[in-house]
Each structure stands twice: as structure tokens, then as C-alpha cells.
Amino acid sequence: MKKQGEDILKNSALSVTASRKRILDIFLAADNALAHQDIETKCADQYDRVTIYRTLQTFLEKGIIHNIPSTDNMVRYALCNEACITTGHHHDNHVHFRCDACGKTVCLDDVNIPAVNLPRGYTMKEINMVVNGICKSCK
Amino acid sequence: MKKQGEDILKNSALSVTASRKRILDIFLAADNALAHQDIETKCADQYDRVTIYRTLQTFLEKGIIHNIPSTDNMVRYALCNEACITTGHHHDNHVHFRCDACGKTVCLDDVNIPAVNLPRGYTMKEINMVVNGICKSCK
DNA sequence: GTAACTGCAAAATATTTGCATCCTT
DNA sequence: AAGGATGCAAATATTTTGCAGTTAC
To answer: Which residues on adjacent β-strands are paired with residue A132?
Structure first.
């Protein structure tokens, strides 16, 4: 499956470049969400920090990755699932989990965000849920 | 009610200083959550930027304010309610709403975060929910 | 008077922008 | 060949730290 990264880029009408493939590979290999810094650590020797900023921005706009809000000024990113990428729409309604022990943030793809009733007059466009606690590996 | 800010500080065993009172007043007067930058805009002429960082940090530790996760690297803060402050525990289980039109982030104190079932092995300590959309003022 | 708080200076870190060059298509 | 992507340099902005002076209690 060495082509997977390339395919994602082609599907999103992006040119296939070394840095983009590398960053996608990092995401594909990761079992958790990554902050800019994490990616930099893994490939700053090969690619410029600015390129990483721009690449993440591009991926975000194309819906290849989604971002996960945080309270520590370290927005993290994770690959979107197939549906997301192919439709260009975010079906990103799963819960995110941040482990206080190992610090990893993961997508709980199987846990849907429950419905909420907003007060009259509010319109919902997007919803985000982040749970903190101890993950199953650290238990 | 000019004493309200002072009372909060005393309850939290913090010394009452001009900058702390001022920052609390800003929060008390605000109808939405504030980022560091917002506060700076309102009082950087009077108080040092560093003091603002440290004050927010202190308030956070004492449970006077809580922070609201974001995807834009602008963590916002809002006053905790009474129960929070007096017990020192966060009962901060309300939903936050960010308006895409006016950009304001508010606490929906009346909307509780619904329960979620985490996968086996995960323990929940804290939960955060942020909804994006259009608020009632911008509708 | 003492401990805590603040302001200033400076260091460290993070982010953005412009432009020349290189690579993909 | 043309447009887009990258690297580098530099400008900005943000956050942290140390320390000396000031203030609250």
C-alpha cells in the first residue's frame, strides 16, 4: 500500500510532492493526533518548518485532515476518514479523547457525539467534543 | 456591587491587587469568553502583558476562570460560576458556543453536556463541548 | 517585615510573509 | 512551459524566565 498517500493527494487535486507524501505518511503511521510540533520533530531535518505550516493548512482546507481543539495552544490534527475526503464534507462527528497520562489525543471513531438542544435562536454548524481522562493503554 | 471582584479574590485566598481587580472586572463586564489578546487590548496600557499571562494562569489554577478549547490557537477564558469557585472543583459541564459571524464564544450555562459512553478501558475526568454556528444575535 | 505580586528586559518560541528557485503536471 | 510548491530570510507575534523593585497583608 505504498501508494495510499499519493492517492489521497490526487483525489484532492493536489500535486504530489515529497514533503506532502512524507507528512501524509506520518499521519498514516500515527495512532494519535499530531500537533505541528510533533510533525516538525519527525521531519524538520528534511523539510522546512514553513512548508509544514503550509502543508497542514492546505490539508485542512482540502478536508484531508481535521483539527482538534485544545486548551494548551497546541491544535492537533488527524486524518479524516474516507467519507470526509471523498465528499469534501466533514462527517467528523466522533469524540476525541486526550489522555492525561500519555498526553496522546485520539479519535474515538466509534463514539458519536450525542445530540444537544441549543437555546432558541442558535444554529449549529459544527460540533466538537473532547474528553480528558486515562486511556486504555495507560490504565 | 463594586466589591464583587474583591470578594472573588478573597475567597480564593489571593491578594487583592489593582491588576487582578481590573482583569476580573473585565470578565464580569464581558458577555462572552475572552482570549488573552482581548484582555490585553483592554488594559495593556495599564498593565504589563506578562502580568496578564500570570494573572490568567493564577485564576485558572484557583478555579476562578475556566478555559475553552479552540482550533485557532486562541484559548479563551470565562468566569466560572459560583459553585466552581466556592468548592474549588469544576462543575463546568455546560456547552460552549462559538459564533461564526461575530466570533464571540459564550457559555451556554443552561445546556448541559450529554453523557457519552466511552469504549471499555477509558476513564473520563473532564469533558468539553464546543458548538460552532450562528448565535441568536447574528441570526 | 515578609511574602507575594508586578514591571522591565531579554530570551526562547511560534507564526507569517515575500521572493527567488525548483518541481510537478 | 506554466503554475504551483518549497526553502530561505526576515519580519511579527507570542510566551516564558529572571530579577529588582513595589505592594498587600
So the answer is: A98, B126
Report the gap between the CA of A1 and the closest CA in chain B (Å): 29
Q: Specify the CATH number for the domain of residue A117.
A: 1.10.10.10
Tell me whether residue B125 is in a domain. Answer: yes
Number of domains chain A is built from: 1
Cα–Cα distance measured from residue B65 to residue A20, given in angstroms and rounded to the nearest whole number: 40
Nearest of A136, B46, A42, B26 to residue B36 by alpha carbon: B26
The larger pLDDT score, comparing residue A5 to residue B11, is at B11
Query: In the predicted model, what is the mean pLDDT of residues B79-85?
Result: 72
Tell me: the pLDDT tens digits for A45-87?
899 999 999 999 999 999 999 999 999 999 999 998 766 666 5
Count other C-beta atoms under 10 Å from residue A122's C-beta. Answer: 21
The answer, yes or no, to whether residue B79 has pLDDT greater than 80, is yes
- HSE-CB for A75 with a 13 A CA cutoff: 16
pTM, whole model, 2 decimals?
A: 0.91
DSSP H/E element including B112? strand B105-112
Question: Domain containing A38: what range?
Answer: 2-133
B138, part of any domain: no
Q: Is residue A139 part of a domain?
A: no
Rounded average pLDDT over B73-79: 96
**Residues above pLDDT 90, as percent of chain B:** 84
In a domain, B99, yes or no: yes
**Given the DSSP bridges, would you call strands A123-134 and A94-99 parallel, antiparallel or unpaired?**
parallel
Q: Chain A residues with CB-CB distance to B under 8 A?
A: 67-73, 75, 95, 97, 100, 108, 110-111, 113-136, 139
Neighbours of B79 (CB within 10 A): 19
